[in-house]
Design brief:
This protein is an alpha+beta fold. The protein is about 20% helix and about 40% strand.
């Protein structure tokens, strides 16, 4: 029996990199009624193919399923918009980030970038195949209850 590195039931968001998170939250609300978490921000150490850097990451999730993640563009990094704002990545939870990352590499999805904690890959990783499909894996222990996480990050006026 073949085991797969990922499970369809662990797909929890579709990520889109945008030039400005706040503008696109408004635009998608006006277009389709999406409601959003507050925009979150963190300066995070990240390992990429060209070395390690601290990146200013800004993002927000839609409150209603299927969930969208809007990520603020960071020029010169993997967080650059795809042409015409197409899907940037598919986000999956995983139980063992390092093992899942290794299995994705073996399946033809080389590591593109990952967060670092004390110099060790942790939190999340991006893998991209030669055709451009990008997969984000996120350590499930970071957000064990995604619905509760979204409620906690929702603006108080919702």
């Amino acid at each position: 029996m073949t085991t797969h590195p990922l499970s369809p039931t662990d797909l929890y968001h579709t990520g889109i990199v945008v030039p400005d998170v706040e503008t696109w939250k408004i635009r998608l609300t006006e277009l389709a009624g999406h409601r959003w978490t507050e925009t979150m921000a963190a300066d995070l150490p990240v390992r990429m193919a060209d070395g390690e850097r601290v990146l200013p990451l800004r993002y927000a999730y839609s409150l209603d399923a299927p969930h969208l993640e809007l990520v603020q563009e960071v020029p010169g990094t993997p967080w650059t918009p795809a042409p015409h704002l197409s899907v940037h990545h598919l986000g999956y939870f995983c139980d063992d980030l390092q093992t899942t990352s290794k299995r994705l590499e073996e399946a033809g999805f080389p590591l593109e970038a990952c967060a670092l904690v004390d110099g060790t890959p942790a939190l999340f990783a991006y893998h991209r195949d030669p055709y451009g499909l990008r997969i984000e894996i996120v350590d499930r222990t970071l957000i064990p209850d995604f619905d509760a996480y979204l409620r906690a990050k929702a603006p108080t006026w919702h």
